[in-house]
Design a protein that fits this description.
103 residues, alpha+beta, 4-stranded antiparallel β-sheet, 3 helices, 21% helix
Length: 103
Amino acid sequence: MKLRALAHSRTGDKGNTANISLIAHDPADYPRLERHVTAERVQAHFAGVVQGEVTRYTLPRLGALNFVMTGALGGGVTRSLALDAHGKGLSAALLDLEIPDEA
């Protein structure tokens, strides 16, 4: 199942760092997000794009995860030649992450 079935995202970018918040549509799905959407999985999902670290912050009372990705914007939005390498493009790509179906 695609991550977008369980969550939506908000993004920001500053310099060469992207910040993606992943928010569960239903707070009951938050534990599932926490189990399956790790910093390591996000790092692997963005292999070749994110050159630095991926740090995950958990926000259980909000039903959200926040990922800070350094070296993610090709030098920064104003310096990069990439057409859509900033936060919004990355959040759409994150929502394409496959997670296991759980009954």
